[in-house]
Design brief:
Length: 312
């Protein structure tokens, strides 16, 4: 099959995306596909896209236009099949504030939050310290601060505002950090859940991308009952937000064993050592097979009468 792998892009997660794309290219070549790497920032992007006429586009872009529905919309209008979620779910999940409002509407647990309006914090807050300050649409922990004392709050908000016009405060939840990876559509399946251990308890950019910066543990150190809650919550989240093919849902399990949804990644890190491929491997799905599966699902969607998920 002729596959274009998209990597790079304009978001602050560009470097990570280039690593994901490199790994995906290698994997798909091993599976005997004819693979073309393409960076949406390249001047010849549109020309090349139309020239190659791919059977499928594998989107290995993280954050920004690539994960947030813009590239998906472009491919949709050109009629090229692509991996992963469609336009709406991609856009919803990229914006944590929008995703949290939908989760809250459906009664799915996500930590309490307060939007920051035009840089101004509300006089009275329904949150207690510590709080987490987040840009709404960034990933890889960029612009996020954990604030333990009130006088550090405005500094943290200023920092988040560098990255995004939309910023919010979120209740800090102390507990076990979990990554729940969902694969497939009818029905979506929760792959083995991973516990993430970091030296400082904050899964920041450094611990995410420095070798040895974090430890992935399967199974996680939570009770069976709690693990059951995590897997069913992850699957419900995936379905509620209309995701497709794959997503990694980041959660914290509190001291009572209850999971809280932090973040839904529709295009999770895809290097050989990233969380999502690790979870797939633990389910007996090797990286090459995982990449090929996603390509085949995308290709199949284009055939008349065949569709996966809620969006076409
Ligand atoms: N409410 C919270 N309570 C405790 N830790 C949090 C909270 N929100 C975020 N964190 C920490 O910050 C990291 C990044 O936050 P997350 O919401 O997953 O954003 P990103 O899109 O950058 O991954 C988490 O993996 C976790 O370590
Ligand atoms: Mg996250």
């Amino acid at each position: 099959m002729k596959v274009i792998v998209l990597g790079g892009g304009d978001s602050p997660e560009r470097e990570v995306s280039l690593r994901s794309a490199r790994a995906v290219c290698q994997a798909l070549r091993k599976k005997k596909n004819e693979v073309f790497f393409l960076d949406p920032l390249a001047g010849s992007f549109f020309k090349k896209l139309l020239q190659v006429k791919p059977d499928c586009v594998f989107i290995a872009l993280h954050g920004g236009m690539g994960e947030g529905g813009v590239i998906q919309g472009l491919l949709e209008s050109l009629g090229f099949p692509y991996t992963g979620s469609g336009v709406l779910a991609s856009a919803v999940c990229l914006n944590k504030l929008v995703a949290k409002k939908i989760l809250a509407y459906h009664g799915l647990p996500t930590p309490a939050f307060v939007p920051v309006n035009n840089g101004w914090l509300p006089e009275k807050m329904a949150l207690s310290l510590p709080v987490v300050v987040k840009p709404a649409s960034l990933g890889s922990t960029i612009g996020i601060s954990i604030v333990k004392s009130k006088h550090r709050l405005s500094q943290a908000v200023k920092k988040a505002l560098i990255y995004d016009r939309e910023v919010f405060l979120e209740q800090y939840i102390s507990g076990v950090e979990i990554a729940a990876s969902i694969l497939g559509n009818n029905p979506p399946v929760c792959l083995p859940v991973i516990e993430i251990k970091t030296a400082g308890g904050f899964y920041d950019y450094q611990s995410k991308y420095t070798p040895g910066g974090s430890l992935h543990t399967i199974p996680p150190g939570i009770s069976k009952e709690s693990l059951q809650k995590v897997t069913s919550l992850a699957t419900r989240t995936f379905q509620t937000l209309g995701c497709r093919d794959l997503a990694r849902i980041d959660m914290i399990v509190d001291s009572q064993g209850n999971p809280w949804i932090l973040d839904i990644n529709t295009i999770p890190g895809f290097t050989q050592t990233s969380l999502y491929p690790d979870a797939a491997r633990a389910a007996g799905i090797e990286f090459e097979e995982l990449c090929q599966k996603l390509v085949l699902w995308a290709k199949e969607r284009k055939q008349p009468g065949k569709s996966h998920g809620r969006q076409k």
